[in-house]
Queue: 2 jobs
Job 1
Amino acid sequence: MKKRAPPALPRDAESIHRLAARSMFDLFSSVSEGMMLVDRAGRVVWINEGYKRFLPALGFSRAEDFVGRPVGEVVPNTLMHHVLETGKPILIDLLTNKAGTFVVSRIPLRDASGEVIGAIGMVLFDHPETTLQPLIAKFARMQQDLDEARRELAAQRRSKYTFASFIGTSPAALEVKRQARRAAQTDATVLLLGETGTGKELLAHAIHAASARAERPFVGVNLAAVPETLLEAEFFGVAPGAYTGADRKGRDGKFKLADRGTLFLDEAGDMPLALQAKLLRALQDQEVEPLGSNKVVKVDVRVIAATSRDLKAMVAGGRFREDLYYRLNVLPVRLPPLRDRLSDLEALAENLLESIAARTGMPQRELTPSALAALAAHPWPGNIRELRNALEQAAMLTDRPRLEAEDFAQVLPAPAARSEPRKTGPLRPLPQLIEELERTSIQSALAATGGNKVSAARLLGISRATLYEKLSTRK
Ligand SMILES: Nc1ncnc2c1ncn2[C@@H]1O[C@H](COP(=O)(O)OP(=O)(O)OP(=O)(O)O)[C@@H](O)[C@H]1O
Ligand SMILES: [Mg+2]
């Protein structure tokens, strides 16, 4: 079958080009809201019928007064002269002036030699707020999401806690806050000492948030939680290419991440001896050498260390370097155990119940005087973390708005039952009794620390590895 050429379509390129240009011009002239042409000097030389309706808003009643004038004088905020200067089109733009807001397009006009001889301006839409509503709504939604993500990020970067989050007005609590506030005003190393769950991490955040470094990162490393073999890379980073696999690209260490901010050494007493020497050097020189690199990197970090161990005894026993101990022990702050500040119990419980309610979405519970008395009689080896845990469990067990002493009976092991030897039952083989005692002790330690194995191991006086071992062989 023979194909016939479409009728009337010219076959030479020049004619096609001319036809296309003409068609596009006509199309834009009819679908756009208005069109204008300016010459090389930026004078308005022509406007189409559509454009005329914008004239009153621009302050002109007759087209003759508008045409012939420099475009910059008659159309405020126009960028036509910019197109003339650069020879580059502005295909889509928003123009706002006294006549309103418009979606506009500006295209340079060139002569046969390619020289810019003028420009064409088109108003594609007026009232974009209505005609472009779907697009603008989508854009606004994206903007909203972006703002929210930015807010969240900023909140995450900010310290989690301030001094206001450290609840307590007992003399012991006030003294701790006073020391911590003073520490926040200096750049000196702080050593937070205290039993598990006394608020060492909370206070470290608060000191950072009140310090001159508040706008910079707070970077924590838990020395008991990171496997020994990874600690060095964690602190000092890894140079690109030093390893194959996941770390091939290299990785910044915590020192680098905390630059000009605060480095929190949590569970500092659990630091392996080999690392202690390296850490001491990094702290003294304020410089680190990433693994696999031979370049040192300068850093500026303020250190806050925390431990529930007796560092002095560890120094005496040769398990903690004396020089590092003195390096960390510049401003020691000792956090009191909960049993030594029972006058704060009510305020603490109220605060914790409020946060539990906020997190679970359930109504906030109150404590009856009898419940408070029961709580005051407990020795709190897991301190405030244990208190939080006990309140949470008791709240789960009942729907009553006010928690009674009996609601805590199941949650808190009676203090007497802990120390008294078992009197019930016939004598049984010793290994069985030991195993039983171990199981119940581990259970109470985990309950006291809210399931925190590192702290539970500490309470039991065994290593974390031993605890894991016992947990895994128990069933
Ligand atoms: N003074 C306080 N006011 C309110 N909440 C507190 C206070 N102290 C501690 N908490 C809360 O108790 C819990 C344990 O605190 P944190 O983690 O700071 O203890 P820690 O001393 O670091 O314990 P560990 O040695 O086991 O790591 C957290 O939920 C914390 O918010
Ligand atoms: Mg801690």
Job 2
Amino acid sequence: MADTIRILVTLAEHADPRLVEQALDGDSSLEVLGYADYFDDWREFLEQPADVVIVACSAGDDSATQMVDRAVKHRPDRPVVVMTEASPNGFLRQVFEAGADDVITLPQPPGEVAFTIQKVIARRKGLMMPGKATAPLIAILGPKGGTGKTLVATNLAVALAQRDANVVLVDLDLQFGDIGLALGLSPERTMYDLMKAGPPFDHEKIDRHLIRHSSGVKVLIAPTRPDQASAISIDYLRDVYAALRTMCDAVIVDTPPGFTPEVIATIDVSGEICMVGMLDSLSLKNTKLGIETLDLMGYDNDSVALVLNRADSRVGITPDDVSTIVGRSPDVFIPSDREIPRSINEGTPIVASRPSSGAAKAFRSLADRYAKMPVSQPAPRQASSSGVRSLIGRRR
Ligand SMILES: Nc1ncnc2c1ncn2[C@@H]1O[C@H](COP(=O)(O)OP(=O)(O)OP(=O)(O)O)[C@@H](O)[C@H]1O
Ligand SMILES: [Mg+2]
């Protein structure tokens, strides 16, 4: 990185230029090449050889989203940072979806602004991506309880982390979340604490609320009490997802049984679904219903992985029967294994504790599916149903 960071500042319709000047002035590591406002000729302005574009705006200024979008499209390889006085619900999601790399809320203590901008640039250089990408969000669903969603979510996360992917696992089972238990993590900070910390949910704040597992997977733990669960709003979830997708290689969301409002909101912004069923007729009936519901929500078969758990159980239903009942063949078969409950008790998923087991192999083949997919663009599922970032061979 050059010693001085060259900055272009674009002012949204209602931005206060004095606040931005104050934030950038007096720091010798930052050099502002120029200011442009909403009505200026942007094409020429954005041609300048700057390292970063700052979009300054007032709280919830709609023109900011357009300006981020234009700056990203003009030079997709150059980072864009939003500077704002406050960020009402939904605003962060909009600017992240438009392609912003980070959001700085003013005022900030001296040095903080430069530090955030340096980090954004370093992160971009580290990624070496030809354009901006957002991480895939993989929702693990199972319309019936106890089918193995948490088992799949934890093992998939660790299998991807074993390939050096930077993975965030979100426990959306708001009432009875047990990811913390399954990974042996204590709930020192949870998604409730993050929500109480209040917006903006920027990278720094979110990162402080993620708990690290020894595999490298970072976990956003579910609230610890049911009354806290009811405080988690859909808007909050969308904001947090949007930010998470700009700060890691894959977001995996473990869900409660059924299509609760928060699960539907997750499906809505997700690009990839992993449906977990078991070899019993009730589970299979619900799996079929679930896949039909996803079809109605615009998901084609390519974006829905069907995982059959306890696939070797002798219960009078064969994998062929499954295809007939559900209407498609499973993509991955996970055998029953006595080591699985043991691995959960130890807090180390079987993909790490017994890597040569049949179950571990099945989880690695599920991870292959996500690791081999192409780069995605910063848009929700509607615009990019199957694109996800290539994880193979990546280094953090
Ligand atoms: N293939 C398997 N072999 C052995 N035990 C298994 C297997 N799959 C799941 N289990 C056991 O079944 C239990 C339920 O699994 P899990 O918690 O992953 O299900 P879930 O779908 O997340 O449940 P819930 O709907 O309650 O969240 C776990 O205790 C796990 O040990
Ligand atoms: Mg579960």
